[in-house]
C-alpha cells in the first residue's frame, strides 16, 4: 500500500492542563483509552491507544524542582489491540492481557513512581502487579532542563503498548534556559519519530510470527520490528510550514527497533544543542544525527533566506543497525516548507556557550562492573537476548551504593547495536573500544584490538541511553542517587526488552 508523502500537516501535541496547581504542588490526571485517529488522509481512521485521547499523548511541561503528582488511569479495553505472545516472561496466561504502567524516561524519581515493569495495573486498578505500590505517582523533577518522554513499561507487552500509541513528551523547564534566547514558543517543536505498517483497512499491522514461524505457537514474539512508513507526531510523512528563521526541534526516536540517521537534503548543518539529559556545553554543527530507540537530540535548524524552499528530512540508517540492509532504511521522514511569511524579526540565537557540563572523573569511581550483552536460543529455536547472560528474574547482581560512582563496561557479544537505558540516573559515555569477541567467548578475557574511541560529539552531554555497538566494549560512568530502591536497566529495542533483555538493579544505602 503506497501512501502519498507530504499531504498531511505535522500535528503538534497539545500541552496537558493540570487539574490542580498551587505554590506547593501540581496534580494531573492522565487517562489511557482506545480511540480512532487519522494517521494519513488516504487511510481509514486507525484504532490506536493513547493518553488523554491523543496519539502521541499531550506534552507534560514542568519546572525544574516543581513537585508534580500524576494519576495514570487505565481505561483500556480488556482485549489487546495487537497479538500477544503468552510464552514471554511476564505475559503468561496468569496475568490480564491488557495492563499498563507508565515510565517517565530519563526522570530522576523515587522507585515507587518509576513505572517498574511489574508494578502494572488494569482498568480501575482492579488487578495490580506484585510491585504495584501507589495509584498516584510523585515526580520531584530535581533535574536540569531536559527533553524526556513518558511511555508504557509493562513487562512482556511494552513493545505492543508503545506501538499501539502509548507515548508522549515530558519537558522539564528552567529559568536559566529561557535566558539563552533559544527559539521558543511556536518556534520550538517536538518531533516524535516512529515507524509503523498498516493493513489495507487502516488498522495497525504488527506481525503475529517471526519470519521463521514456530509451528506450535499461534502467536510468537519477533526478534525486531521494522515498519514501512515513518510517522512524526502521529502522522505519516507529514509536512511542516515554517518561517524563514531559526526553529528549535526536540527530536525523539520512539520506534520499537528502528535507528535513524537524519540528514537534510539541502545539505545544510543541523545545530545540536542538547542530548538526552539536557543542554550541552557548546552547540555543534553536524550534517547528520544518529538516534537509537529512546535517544533524544535537541537541535536548531536555521531556515533564514530559504524562502519558498522545501527541505526533506532523510534517513539512511540500515535496519537492523549497524550491519543490516540499507534498503530497509525508509529514506524519507518529513518535509519542511519555508512558505510562511516572517511574522517578526528573528532575534533568537544559537549560543556559542550554553552551560558548564562537569565531567565525572574516572578516578572517582569506586566500582567497575563488566556486563555482557548476549545472544541465546530458547526451546522453540527463537533468538533471545540477555544482559550479563541472566534472565529478568535471576537474583539481582547490580547493587550500587547511594552516592557512589561506578563505571560499567558493556561488552557486546551480539551482532546488533543495543541502546542500553538505565533508569533513575544520567551517565556520561567514556569511550568505546573494539575487542576480540571469539577470544572472549573462549577465554573470558577482553583482548582489545583497537584504541579507545571517545564519544561522538553529539553524545557529549548527559545521557540515559547509549548505543552499545557490536564487537565493542562501551564504557559509561555514573553516580547513583538521589533515591535508593529498585530500578531497571535494559535494552531499549522493545522486542529485546520484552524478551528478557532487562534486569532489575537496586540502589542500596
UniProtKB/TrEMBL annotation:
<dbReference type="InterPro" id="IPR001117">
    <property type="entry name" value="Cu-oxidase_2nd"/>
</dbReference>
<dbReference type="InterPro" id="IPR011706">
    <property type="entry name" value="Cu-oxidase_C"/>
</dbReference>
<dbReference type="InterPro" id="IPR045087">
    <property type="entry name" value="Cu-oxidase_fam"/>
</dbReference>
<dbReference type="Pfam" id="PF07732">
    <property type="entry name" value="Cu-oxidase_3"/>
</dbReference>
<dbReference type="Pfam" id="PF00394">
    <property type="entry name" value="Cu-oxidase"/>
</dbReference>
<protein>
    <submittedName>
        <fullName>Copper oxidase</fullName>
    </submittedName>
</protein>
<comment type="similarity">
    <text>Belongs to the multicopper oxidase family.</text>
</comment>
<dbReference type="GO" id="GO:0016491">
    <property type="term" value="F:oxidoreductase activity"/>
</dbReference>
<feature type="domain" description="Plastocyanin-like">
    <location>
        <begin position="370"/>
        <end position="507"/>
    </location>
</feature>
<feature type="domain" description="Plastocyanin-like">
    <location>
        <begin position="206"/>
        <end position="309"/>
    </location>
</feature>
<dbReference type="Pfam" id="PF07731">
    <property type="entry name" value="Cu-oxidase_2"/>
</dbReference>
<feature type="domain" description="Plastocyanin-like">
    <location>
        <begin position="45"/>
        <end position="82"/>
    </location>
</feature>
<dbReference type="GO" id="GO:0005507">
    <property type="term" value="F:copper ion binding"/>
</dbReference>
<dbReference type="InterPro" id="IPR008972">
    <property type="entry name" value="Cupredoxin"/>
</dbReference>
<dbReference type="InterPro" id="IPR011707">
    <property type="entry name" value="Cu-oxidase-like_N"/>
</dbReference>
Amino acid at each position: 500500500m503506497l501512501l502519498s508523502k507530504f499531504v498531511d500537516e505535522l500535528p503538534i501535541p497539545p500541552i496537558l492542563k493540570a487539574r490542580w496547581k498551587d505554590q506547593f504542588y501540581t496534580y494531573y490526571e492522565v487517562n489511557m483509552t482506545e480511540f480512532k485517529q487519522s494517521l494519513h488522509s488516504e487511510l481509514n481512521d486507525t484504532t490506536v491507544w493513547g493518553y488523554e485521547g491523543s496519539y502521541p499523548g499531550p506534552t507534560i511541561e514542568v519546572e525544574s524542582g516543581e513537585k508534580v503528582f500524576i494519576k495514570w488511569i487505565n481505561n483500556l479495553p480488556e482485549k489487546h489491540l495487537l497479538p500477544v505472545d503468552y510464552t514471554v516472561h511476564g505475559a503468561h496466561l496468569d496475568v490480564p492481557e491488557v495492563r499498563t504502567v507508565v515510565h517517565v524516561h530519563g526522570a530522576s524519581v523515587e522507585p515507587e513512581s518509576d513505572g517498574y515493569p511489574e508494578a502494572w495495573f488494569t482498568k480501575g486498578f482492579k488487578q495490580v502487579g506484585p510491585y504495584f505500590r501507589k495509584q498516584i505517582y510523585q515526580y520531584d523533577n530535581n533535574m536540569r532542563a531536559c527533553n524526556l518522554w513518558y511511555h508504557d513499561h509493562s513487562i512482556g507487552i511494552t513493545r505492543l503498548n508503545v506501538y499501539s500509541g502509548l507515548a508522549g513528551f515530558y519537558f522539564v523547564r528552567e529559568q536559566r534556559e529561557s535566558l539563552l534566547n533559544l527559539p521558543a514558543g511556536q518556534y520550538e517543536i517536538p518531533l516524535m519519530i516512529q515507524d509503523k505498517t498498516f493493513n489495507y483497512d487502516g488498522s495497525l499491522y504488527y506481525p503475529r510470527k517471526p519470519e521463521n514461524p514456530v509451528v506450535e505457537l499461534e502467536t510468537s514474539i519477533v526478534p525486531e520490528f521494522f515498519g514501512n512508513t515513518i510517522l512524526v507526531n502521529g502522522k505519516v510523512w507529514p509536512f511542516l510550514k515554517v518561517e524563514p528563521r531559526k526553529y528549535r526541534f526536540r527530536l525523539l526516536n520512539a520506534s520499537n527497533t528502528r535507528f535513524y540517521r537524519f540528514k537534510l537534503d539541502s545539505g545544510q548543518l543541523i545545530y545540536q544543542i542538547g542530548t538526552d539529559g539536557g543542554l550541552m556545553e557548546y552547540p555543534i554543527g553536524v550534517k547528520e544525527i544518529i538516534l537509537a530507540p529512546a535517544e533524544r537530540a535537541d537541535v536548531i535548524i536555521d531556515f533564514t533566506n530559504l524562502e519558498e524552499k522545501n527541505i526533506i528530512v532523510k534517513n539512511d540508517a540500515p535496519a537492523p543497525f549497524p550491519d543490516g540492509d540499507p534498503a530497509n532504511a525508509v529514506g524519507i521522514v518529513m518535509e519542511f516548507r519555508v512558505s510562511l511569511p516572517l511574522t517578526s524579526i528573528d532575534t533568537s540565537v544559537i549560543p556559542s556557550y550554553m552551560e558548564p557540563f562537569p565531567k565525572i572523573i574516572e578516578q572517582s569511581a569506586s566500582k567497575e562492573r563488566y556486563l555482557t550483552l548476549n545472544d541465546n536460543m530458547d526451546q522453540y529455536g527463537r533468538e533471545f537476548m540477555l544482559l550479563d547472560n541472566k534472565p529478568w528474574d535471576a537474583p539481582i547482581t547490580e547493587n550500587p551504593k547511594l552516592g557512589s560512582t561506578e563505571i560499567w563496561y558493556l561488552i557486546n557479544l551480539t551482532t546488533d547495536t543495543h541502546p542500553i537505558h538505565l533508569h533513575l540516573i544520567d551517565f556520561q559515555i567514556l569511550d568505546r573500544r573494539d575487542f576480540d569477541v571469539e577470544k572472549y567467548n573462549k577465554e573470558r578475557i577482553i583482548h582489545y584490538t583497537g584504541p579507545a574511541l571517545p564519544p561522538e560529539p553529539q553524545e557529549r552531554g548527559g545521557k540515559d541511553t547509549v548505543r552499545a555497538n557490536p564487537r565493542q566494549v562501551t564504557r559509561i560512568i555514573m553516580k547513583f542517587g538521589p533515591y535508593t530502591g529498585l530500578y531497571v536497566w535494559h535494552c531499549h529495542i522493545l522486542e529485546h526488552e520484552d524478551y528478557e533483555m532487562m534486569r532489575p538493579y537496586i540502589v542500596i544505602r
